[in-house]
């Protein structure tokens, strides 16, 4: 085998490795994953159960609604439009349509197959519920089909809630801004 053949083989192997690295980096840029829970290092004692069971403080929509902008929410909701239809009378895309979602009963859009967890949750989508849900859908409804990892920025979530509330024939009153 001459050096030209060896170079072709090495180039093919290196090209494949480069392609796999680019695909890996691109997929990490597109899809975010929640950070794993803190686990003790080897030989380290686990944290006490009481510390792990302490509930996280609940963020209140009222704390952010005073600065909320439906216009910013419209821009921030572009990611929602990948799976949800926002138009009045719009049908199911991948997820249920979001027109009129604030104030609507959970799991109530005909033609969409909701997860058993969402059906069991019941109730109505209040502005606070939407605010909490889009932070971490899996935490709000464990077992939901929604694969969105969540929006950590509370002001963006408040903007989105303000925008979604405008997408209704009878908008729900948003909470009064916190003092």
TrEMBL record:
One of its GO terms (molecular function) is metal ion binding. InterPro entries: Cyt_c-like_dom (IPR009056), Cyt_c-like_dom_sf (IPR036909), Cyt_c_1A/1B (IPR002327). Residues 68-168 form the Cytochrome c domain. It comes from the Bacteria. Keywords: Electron transport, Heme, Iron, Metal-binding, Transport. The keyword Transport applies. The keyword Transmembrane helix does not apply. This is Cytochrome c. It comes from Methylovirgula ligni.
